[in-house]
Design goal:
Largest sheet: 5 strands, antiparallel
Number of helices: 2
Oligomer: single chain
Number of domains: 1
Shape: globular
Distance between the termini: 37 Å
Low-confidence stretches: none
CATH architecture: 2-Layer Sandwich
Structural class: alpha+beta
Amino acid sequence: MKMMREGRVIFPNIMYERHLSFQDELVKEFGGFTLYTGQGGWGGPNGKIIENIVIYDISLDIEEWTTWGRLRDLIVRMGKDLKQDAVYYRRPNGIVEIIELNEE
């Protein structure tokens, strides 16, 4: 039996064509994904922000740690393409990282 861990990333539901290419990359690199839509909210410098979001769950081989870095690289590239300041990423080990894209 192959053991997997699941990573999660949340992006705003904008730039539909870019999401399609991100999905293609996920299938090619990791074999697939599960997608959910919803709403997310947080406090920003201009007050409360509520937006429509896309949530991706991606399963990664538990023994191949290099896949975690490759997923993070894809997330950073996607976040920059969507012109985000930061991206929510739950690593396959359960730790949540808010990736500050201005620092990448």
